[in-house]
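Notes from hallway chat w/ T.B., transcribed later so I don't forget. T.B. wanted the structure written out for a chain they're using in a teaching module, and asked if we could keep both sequence and structure tokens in one place. Agreed to drop them here.
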Amino acid sequence: MNHNNSSSAVDRPESGSRVPLTLAITGGKGGVGKTQVALNLALVLARQGYRTLLLDGDVELANVNVMLGVYPGMTLEHVVLGERTLDEVLLPVTENLDLLPGASGVPGCLELDSARREDFLAQLRTLEQGYDRVIIDTAAGLSTPALHMVAASHLAALVITPDPTSLTDAFSLVKVLHRKGYRRTPSVIVNMARGATEAQTVYRRFSTAVSRYIGVQLHYLGAIWRDETIAQSISTQRPVAMMDDSDPSCRQFWTLADMLAVRCSQGVAPANGFARYWGRLVRRRHQQRSEQQPQKAVATGSNREWLASLGERLHRSQGDPLSRYRLITGILETLGESVDEDAVEALQTGLAAMNWEEAPVTVRRAASEHFRQLARVVAPPEGLRPEEGRALGAGADASGEPATEDSGPG
């Protein structure tokens, strides 16, 4: 296939005339090649003439930086803190492609005061309007920032591999997104497949399970074959999309970009854009905080007694695992219905470290009742039921081959 690299071949909008198409590349677990896909696809889009912005949403691993051989001293977190502007942390990669490192720092704007928050969001809007395509390499898994990155995008592409654990983790991601109200059609990219037959088999197994048990329809965006050249590109710090487009390794990502263009031509769900999504989220959060008074979950009547006792016991506790949860008493008073899953996880960790055997029976009963109330407020993510695991091929044999269709529910 002869690809035209000239920007004149691309029908691009006027700068700022509309929000750019935003694609989140995500995955249920690490090690599926998500960052490789995001980086190489962004490079191809840039070579096709699209002004492209790549957001590195996994600041802890910073894999994009490693694959490009660039090590920025500043990230988006410095912008959120007011120490730098967006233009100062933006890294030019190639013609038409820029990298914004540390995009996972965007949620930090939730905690800014009004003036700094509006300044940051204005910078984000201005930056966004200068591009045709925004590719987000999200953090892997079910973290809140990763879920928000998906929600802020026009399209989400879920990277899976033939590995059964990849499928079960991706299944959990789709399940959580659906439970939280995500109603767009996720696309799927099968990575590290040994050929078209395996890629189609893996996709059919995954999409069938997702449709049957979650009620979500998926879209097949494409596949990337298992390729030694792609694997070696990490150590050479030269992504395959920088090679000649006649190279087989590079050509796979041109094909993927073409499939993305076809997907876009079919129409995508409307979205307000990355900057506007975060702006609306931030303002909604602050409005809720100003309008709602925290509910006293346990700080009234006889419950004050056990709360004081619990606080005293934590205060006397020796050793860091216990002492760092002394503030649990204040949390219990103010959480009410504002509790989220992160808070529940922190509470669970603290409670597990406590020596409950020494607590009076009345204290244990009161604490038990309170945490039952919290459990009713926050429904934990559903686990993978046995029949769902079988449908995804979680019972693969030792060779790593996917289980047969017979392993699914009858």
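Follow-up for T.B.: The chain has two domains: 7-285, 295-377. Might be a good example for the class.
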